[in-house]
Amino acid sequence: MQEAELRSIALSVRNKIEQVIEELSYVDIELKNFPSGACEVASVILGLYLQSEHGVHVVQSVGKRSLFNDNGENNHVWLTVNGSLIIDITADQFDDFHEPVFVGTESVFHDTFEEYDTRPIDFSYLIRGGSEGYSGVYQNVSNSLKST
Questions:
Q1: Is residue 138 part of a domain?
Q2: CA–CA distance from 75 to each of 3, 12, 38, 70 (Å)?
Q3: Does residue 45 lie in a domain region?
Q4: What range does the domain containing 74 cover?
Q5: Which of 2, 8, 15, 125 has the fewest Cβ atoms within 10 angstroms?
């Protein structure tokens, strides 16, 4: 699949996530201030959609970097295709990135993170103990995109 098509799908998924969040009367904490704090959940939703509807094999990439004032760390999650193509629909939660979607192999922004883990995309990441979780959000996003 070409970068332009992946970018279009990623933007559609992000827009649908935002729409679903606006329409729901209750949203769990990780999506409440989308895109801030939503990188894992949003990445899993996009990853599941890419795998199930387009046969694209993706993994979650997890990175960390020191805060600019050296008072702690930022963690961030994005998707990686074939070990090199980055897909990120929440990077704009950070002050040093301003686009709603990034798809590409070269990213100065992503290079600021030390990648310390890669994980398979799994539906279980959308399930949260003691809350409604995010499986319903995924179903709403996926069904909405299938009908368009």
A1: no
A2: 25, 25, 11, 14
A3: yes
A4: 3-128
A5: 2
Q: Is the pLDDT higher at 1 or at 144?
A: 144
Q: Tokens representing 14? A: 């992000």
C-alpha distance from residue 67 to each of 45, 89, 90 (Å): 27, 21, 17
Is a pLDDT exceeding 80 seen at residue 129?
no
Q: Considering the domain boundaries, does residue 114 fall inside one?
A: yes
The alpha helices in 25-122, defined as continuous H runs, are 29-32, 39-54, 108-111
CA 104 to chain centre: 15
- Spatial strand order in the sheet of 85-88: 102-104, 85-88, 73-81, 58-66, 114-120
**Which pLDDT score is estimated for 51?**
95
Q: How confident is the model at residue 130 (pLDDT cuts 50, 70, 90)?
A: low
Query: Is residue 115 domain-resident?
Result: yes
